[in-house]
User: Fold this.
Amino acid sequence: MRRVLVAGNWKMHKVPSEARVWLAELKRLLPPLDSEAAVLPAFPILPVAKEVLGGSQVAYGAQDVSAHREGAYTGEVSARMLKDLGCRYAIVGHSERRRYHGETDALVAEKAKRLLEEGITPILCVGEPLEVRERGEAVPYTLNQLLESLRGVEPPAPEALVVAYEPVWAIGTGKNATPSDAEAMHRALRQALSERYGAGFGERVRILYGGSVNPKNFADLLSQPNVDGGLVGGASLELESFLALLRIA
Ligand code: PEP
Assistant:
């Protein structure tokens, strides 16, 4: 009932001309899909994604969005702009933005609200740093981050929401959570969302795992009943490995 999603977070990689060639190849080589594929490139690539992927099976979206609707906010990109570019998704609360740009849960919640207003699906990232896991506090820390990053998103449930559990220590490090640790966290996240928005929503919401996903470990992660896909950084940049992930999904 929950459709698997494989979303590639390109971060600050590829220029628009490289992306054009890559995306056209992806379209050409795409296997038949039961799952959903999405690419999340940098802002200047989104018009290229619209041109190349528009009307195809592959969705696309952004890595961030402004917390403001419109106005004198130099350098910001609004949810309405993303909507006009055909984005289905946008990441909010990625740990790199929390860490390097000081993004707080309150800011992330505003960003999620702007996306929901425009009918764009937020991919809300949460996850604990290493010292929190070592203290044995990963679950309460991450649940608190989830609920704080949705503060002001009142019931009824934000049906479009996707959550990504990304333990900070697993991102870009080659270390990943064990399938059973990921499963335990996803179950706890689902339970928290059920308590906040109703049991039905907890069962409907898709929860992705992110953190050094690759074609070797993806099948085991996906075999967990509460893991609904992957948010993939490094392994989404090479066409072959992204296609391999899609074949696994
Ligand atoms: C990410 O950027 O969200 C991510 C999980 O990166 P990586 O797959 O490279 O760890």
Observations:
- The pocket of phosphoenolpyruvate is lined by residues 9, 11, 166, 171-172, 210-213, 231-235 (CB under 6 Å).
